[in-house]
Amino acid sequence: MRRPLVAGNWKMNKTVGEASELVNSMAPKLNELKGVEKVLCPPFISLPVISYLLKGGEVGLGAQNMYWEEKGAFTGEVSPAMVKELCQYVILGHSERRTYFGETDETVKKRVHAAQKIDLIPIVCVGETLQQYESKQTNEVVARQIKFGLADVDAAFAPRIVVAYEPVWAIGTGKASSGPSANEVVGKVIRGALSELFGNQTAQAIRVLYGGSVTASNAAEFFGQSEIDGALVGGASLKVDEFVAITKAASKS
């Protein structure tokens, strides 16, 4: 059985003070929910404080990115060890990183291997743009991102990986994919590519989340699908009641 997981990607929102207030309001309610893994991913600057506030509870902590080198002259970057000191998870290959900061399947692969080396759980994002979607290239694009981004990962580590299917055209637009449509991509394309890499048994063990305009009102539609194991939530994760409601829906799935 794949345990549901709901992760909140706060993106570039909340100062340290604001992040602390949000966690103090949200964490007690999340701690009450059983049968679902919960993860918060605030900006780097808030990780130390949030790590302290979450200590002893049932909410995990994740970073929004990291570099693949262990240390060195890489101004502005954060190493795997720096993330590992505070976090259990790290988001890799988010479409905003690919679009605005030039990340590629190759650099995602380097980051995944760095996460494997230090035993961080990567949440690896894949998804097609609107143009690719309209050109019916979804299957080709998503399969390529999986096969290149996760190439040469150790079979023993593979079940720890989390994949997030986030159609780029649905992120922050309010235009979520339908549950059945997302489920088909996850079941046929993503698990198909994972099966080619690691075998069917491992492919069935890897959790795959949906992301892209997930709200409390549509979450149950996604969580009711057989292949979807939770969500990577953006804007709604900044609202206590909304994120708790989404997580509660996952705990019932």
- Sheet-strand content, in percent, reads 5-15%
List the helices and strands in order: EHEHEHEHHEHHEHHEHEH
The CATH topology of one domain, please?
A: TIM Barrel
Biggest sheet character: 8 strands, parallel
> Regions with pLDDT < 50 over 5+ consecutive residues?
none
Q: Provide the residue-averaged pLDDT.
A: 96
N- to C-terminal separation?
12 Å
Count of DSSP E strands? 8
Helix content: 40-55%
CATH architecture of one domain: Alpha-Beta Barrel
- C-alpha geometry: globular
CATH class of one domain: Alpha Beta
At the fourth CATH level, what is the homologous superfamily of one domain? Aldolase class I
How many helix segments?
11
Structure description:
- This protein is of the alpha/beta class.
- It has a domain at 70-234: Alpha-Beta Barrel (TIM Barrel).
- The protein is 44% helix and 15% strand.
- It is built from 11 helices and 8 strands.
- The chain has helices spanning 16-31, 47-54, 80-84, 95-101, 105-118, 130-134, 138-149, 179-198, 200-205, 219-223, 240-252, and strands spanning 5-9, 37-41, 59-63, 89-92, 121-126, 162-165, 207-210, 230-233.
- Helix 5 crosses helix 7 (138-149) and helix 7 (138-149) runs parallel beside helix 8 (179-198).
- The longest helix has 20 residues, at 179-198.
- The termini are close together.
